[in-house]
């Protein structure tokens, strides 16, 4: 079967689909990942076909600015991206026998699949508005718990408010020969028909809500494909061997314009906590001076590096959150937006994190305190170890392989 996975987002959003795609390829499917041009090396390194997905490149915009002007600008960019993704998904669907749709491509892919007679399934990395529940608001909303009624109906309110901005979707449906009902009526129809949405995280981290409709499933994590040719640099290997386990620090792909400030805070926080550190330069361009206690690195596979850490400081993205849980080490999230505050709160509730500090409010004293607690509080390490065993025992990709086989 020719399968196309559509994936939109930064590296951490796309990487899990490389491992999933490889598993599907191993059982005989021809798999292509359609995503932003920047992720072509990531996809091809996993042995998968790459397709350029029009509209996916603009998803790299960092949401760091504040104020009404920034919100308005971001909204306009979002609408334009969704418009372009209509064309992008239609193009990459040519010749496909199954579409596996990630997040922002779900409505476009569902419409295309319906029009062309191609089966589709949705794949999500966190609980979204596609899966409303009273247990918590949609993770991408970055909101605290609003109570069961508001949590469950927030997605409908947001869709109503944004309906005028997505009028182009009716035109897209008409072009495909479908009833031009618009986006919101189509999403309601998908709920009514129990459209399948599989979630790539662990039920031990987020239990399946009891009020979810049929068709909403939690499979377990989909881990990125392992690079067989990767080896650590001599500097990294020597640093790890030269002392106690260090603390890993990275602020992900959304902290792309504040590298100098974050570098200073990171260096001071590690000193205050009295720990060694491995700092990933990342999109922020962190540049903490290397010494006996700190090493700055580029890319390194999380599945190799994280189990050797005493704790992990990260932005709270779904992929990095899962990797730290898999490694069985405590975490200190520094969330910025989207699903990151959701995962930060979840890690605290699980008992694998001493707490979090928002990236915009980051300071060395607070970060240093949280790092010290993450390293030295035995209860955090014990819970993290137990959760890690549960997460590692699951085969999330295998569950998707089974779901695909049922469609054959």
What does this structure look like?
The chain is built from 15 helices and twelve strands. The protein has helices at residues 11-26, 40-45, 68-92, 106-116, 148-162, 168-175, 183-192, 234-241, 259-273, 302-305, 318-327, 340-350, 364-376, 378-392, 396-405; strands at residues 2-6, 30-35, 49-52, 98-102, 120-124, 197-199, 216-218, 247-249, 277-280, 294-297, 311-314, 331-333. The strands form two sheets. A seven-stranded parallel beta sheet has the order 3-2-1-4-5-6-7, with helices on both faces. It has a five-stranded parallel beta sheet with strand order 10-9-8-11-12, with helices on both faces. The longest helix is centred in the N-terminal third of the chain and has 25 residues, at 68-92. Helices cover 43% and strands 12% of the residues. It has 408 residues and is an alpha/beta fold. It has two domains: 2-225 and 394-405, Glycogen Phosphorylase B (Rossmann fold), CATH 3.40.50; 234-376, Rossmann fold (3-Layer(aba) Sandwich), CATH 3.40.50. Residues 3-56 form the Glycosyltransferase family 28 N-terminal domain. Keywords: Antibiotic biosynthesis. This is Glycosyltransferase.
Oligomer: single chain
User: Gap between N and C termini, in Å?
Assistant: 8 Å
**Total DSSP E strands:** 12
Which CATH class of the largest domain applies here?
Alpha Beta
Number of helices: 15
Radius of gyration: 21 Å
Q: What's the number of domains?
A: 2
The ordered string of helix (H) and strand (E) elements is: EHEHEHEHEHHHEEHEHEEHEHEHHHH
Low-pLDDT residue intervals, each spanning 5 or more residues: 61-72
Tell the overall outline: globular
- Mean model confidence by pLDDT: 90
**CATH architecture of the largest domain, please?**
3-Layer(aba) Sandwich
Percent range for β-strand residues: 5-15%
Strand order of the largest sheet: 3-2-1-4-5-6-7
Kindly report the CATH topology of the largest domain.
Rossmann fold
Biggest sheet record: 7 strands, parallel
């Amino acid at each position: 079967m020719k399968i196309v996975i559509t994936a939109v987002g930064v590296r951490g959003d796309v990487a899990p689909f490389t491992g999933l795609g490889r598993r599907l390829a191993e059982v005989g499917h021809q798999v292509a990942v359609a995503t932003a041009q920047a992720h072509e090396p990531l996809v091809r390194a996993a042995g998968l076909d790459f397709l350029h997905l029009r509209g996916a490149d603009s998803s790299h915009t960092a949401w760091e600015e504040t104020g009404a002007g920034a919100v308005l600008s971001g909204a306009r960019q979002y609408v334009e991206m969704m418009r372009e993704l209509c064309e992008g998904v239609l193009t990459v669907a040519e010749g496909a026998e199954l579409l596996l749709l990630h997040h922002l491509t779900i409505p476009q892919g569902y419409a295309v699949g319906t029009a062309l007679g191609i089966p589709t399934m949705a794949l999500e990395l966190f609980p979204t508005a596609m899966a409303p529940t009273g247990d918590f608001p949609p993770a991408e909303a970055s909101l605290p718990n609003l109570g069961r009624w508001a949590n469950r109906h927030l997605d409908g309110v947001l869709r109503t408010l944004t309906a005028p901005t997505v009028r182009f979707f009716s035109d897209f449906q008409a072009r495909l020969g479908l009833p031009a009902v618009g986006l919101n009526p189509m999403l309601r129809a998908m709920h009514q028909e129990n459209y399948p949405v599989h979630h790539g995280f662990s039920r031990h981290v987020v239990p399946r809500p009891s009020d979810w409709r049929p068709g909403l499933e939690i499979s377990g994590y989909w881990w990125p494909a392992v690079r067989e040719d990767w080896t650590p640099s001599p500097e990294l290997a020597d640093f790890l061997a030269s002392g106690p386990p260090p603390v890993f620090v990275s602020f992900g792909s959304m902290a792309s314009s504040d590298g100098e400030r974050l570098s200073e805070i990171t260096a001071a926080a590690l000193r205050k906590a009295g720990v060694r550190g491995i700092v990933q330069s990342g999109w922020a361009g962190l540049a903490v001076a290397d010494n006996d206690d700190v090493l700055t690195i580029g890319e390194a596979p999380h599945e190799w590096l994280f189990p050797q850490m005493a704790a992990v400081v990260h932005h709270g993205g779904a992929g990095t959150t899962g990797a730290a849980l898999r490694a069985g080490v405590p975490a200190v999230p520094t969330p910025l937006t989207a699903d990151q505050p959701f995962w930060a709160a979840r890690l605290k509730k699980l008992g694998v994190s001493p707490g979090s500090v928002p990236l915009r409010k980051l300071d060395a004293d607070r970060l240093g305190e949280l790092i010290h607690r993450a390293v030295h509080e035995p209860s955090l390490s014990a819970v993290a170890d137990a959760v890690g065993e549960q997460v590692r025992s699951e085969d999330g990709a295998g569950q998707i392989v089974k779901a695909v086989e049922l469609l054959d």
